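dumping the sequnces here before i forget
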Amino acid sequence: MIQKLIEKIQKTKAPICVGLDPMLGYIPKQITEKAYAEYGETLEGAAEAVWQFNKEIVDHTFDLIPAVKPQIAMYEQFGIPGLTAYKRTVDYCRGKGLIVIGDAKRGDIGSTSAAYAAAHLGHVQVGSRSLAGFDTDFLTVNPYLGTDGVKPFVDVCQAEDKGIFVLVKTSNPSSGEFQDKTIDGRPLYELVAGKVVEWGALSMDGAYSNVGAVVGATYPEMSRILRKQMPHTYFLVPGYGAQGGTAEDLRYCFNEDGLGAIVNSSRGIIAAYKKDPYAEFGPERFGEASRQAVIDMAADIGRVL
Amino acid sequence: MIQKLIEKIQKTKAPICVGLDPMLGYIPKQITEKAYAEYGETLEGAAEAVWQFNKEIVDHTFDLIPAVKPQIAMYEQFGIPGLTAYKRTVDYCRGKGLIVIGDAKRGDIGSTSAAYAAAHLGHVQVGSRSLAGFDTDFLTVNPYLGTDGVKPFVDVCQAEDKGIFVLVKTSNPSSGEFQDKTIDGRPLYELVAGKVVEWGALSMDGAYSNVGAVVGATYPEMSRILRKQMPHTYFLVPGYGAQGGTAEDLRYCFNEDGLGAIVNSSRGIIAAYKKDPYAEFGPERFGEASRQAVIDMAADIGRVL
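..and the predicted 3d for all of it:
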């Protein structure tokens, strides 16, 4: 699966992933009002607004980008209707030829991780039939429970040509609270990185592994070290833009071949119309604003590669 | 919320939680066959079987126990129909007066954790209305991202009288891979425990906090230390029974007041009819087997308290 992602990145010349994290506050009024008129101010109404918003953004950007990353929490908050909008978004994006990275940060004891892996990447056996729950291409995974909590995801990557990104060094302000703590002279995130390399060896796909790592753009010195420690690991890099990461900060996430990282932007793309450089588009043309923001982000990152 | 749980534990004299983790392999054929006959070998068919299985177990045990803990992964693997069965189970259990601990191990950056907290414990604002997605009483939370990833859950606990259990020392074989690593002379799980105590101080409810900890039954020496380090923290204790934890191992999870822990059993209860001591019930009377297994588990734990 990582090869498919690399091919899409090379074709679009954009190591970019659009974070489909539709907070209601980002959605223009013409969409929410229409959805509420049809479904009421209900979970169904919110889910319909989310779906219409996503569709418009995908329709305006799918030809420019290799992948999208819907954050499942933003759908889960609207209960079953919200998760139905998540599934609809996943299916629509895959239909448009996009690679879908489900940002779910799942992780549990072995048998439970196996169920999550089946839910999001693989299949579940029901009687004589093998069925898919959500069927995304990649999933983000939390490593706190150790190897037996991650291995079931790796097994599904290998069996079904899918991929994962394991949290190594996250982009948020307090990520250092545990992740940076020193163990035998090295920070915990390097210990996790070492394990990701081990797990990754179990599902190689060309020069890179189907087992990637989440490495935040907001800690460039750390990404430099991790890049060297994990030469065959693809990085999913959150934190660019709204969270404070700049293109300069991203330089070290890439290998010398120009590969090795895909950079996510959520708010910066999907709520671009609310930001100064794109205000001219206005809420009515938010899809076009998102398209322009993608073009600008690709150019910004291209500058440092 | 922790006071409500304590009252229920005192009333039932059973510090027990039934893990509603319905693997299809646990469900007797008369239930799956009926469900597949009605809905086909589909996600809907599997979800119907899960729901009918849960309902029978809850109907046979609700008067003996304070709480249930559905593991959401076991539902998520069946996609939207599975999650609909999860919600139905949560609502049914709450209707029966049970406290519901959603075992979801969510955790992310701040804004995303806020969405998960709204999804499972709180409410989401849709236009002028405040709506609940899943509305469980407690949720399990993963701490790998640090304070800003946990705080949104604590805020909802405090605002809406709900509770969380934060992963401290998990019950699985490789939990020590990261959790036991030494930082400044103490294992990571003690560092996490210290933070749980800090977070817990922000939402006290009587002598205990609404912010609890997950502490596996399979590591009794560690639970002894954690019990002392966290006197006002309730423990959710997985790993009893099928995973190998014994009643003796649980002794140290409790405070001298006999409170401080609630012990989960999943397979040992819901698939009791498959085990030797309960084989006489057979698949037809699996609900009665589960009831007897609950009675025996309460007696087993009562012995060491």
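The radius of gyration of chain B is 19 Å.
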